[in-house]
Design a protein that fits this description.
Blueprint (H helix, E strand, L loop, with lengths): L1 E6 L1 H7 L2 E5 L4 H11 L1 H9 L5 E7 L2 E3 L13 E7 L11 H11 L4 H7 E4 L1
Parallel strand pairs: 1-5
Antiparallel strand pairs: 1-2, 2-6, 3-4, 3-5
Length: 122
Amino acid sequence: MQHRVLLLDELGERWGETHTFHNLRSPSEAVKLLCINYPDLMEYMATSHEEGVAYTVVQNGEQLGLEDLALPLGEHDLIITPVIAGSGNPGKILAGALMIVSAVMFAPLAVSGAAAGFMGAA
């Protein structure tokens, strides 16, 4: 199955808006693949809290919390948006560093599998 991950606002401007992957199992796996393919994105997300930036992760109109990142990924696009830290629903605004930790802990995969699943920015 093909999945699209959309990076909005400054994320999309710097690393491309649309990323297509095959057979993603979870939102954490999507974040992990993005970080593997764009190491500077991982560094940016890990330190963005210092600038007051956090993230929302939305699928099918539902804002995901940290505990949701390990759940199976549905068929709808996954949307990652930077937001001002402290805005919106505090339980659903995620620090970039926490998203990366979640990706490492909950999305184990072989690097060869990661490279094979990446189709690039559209």
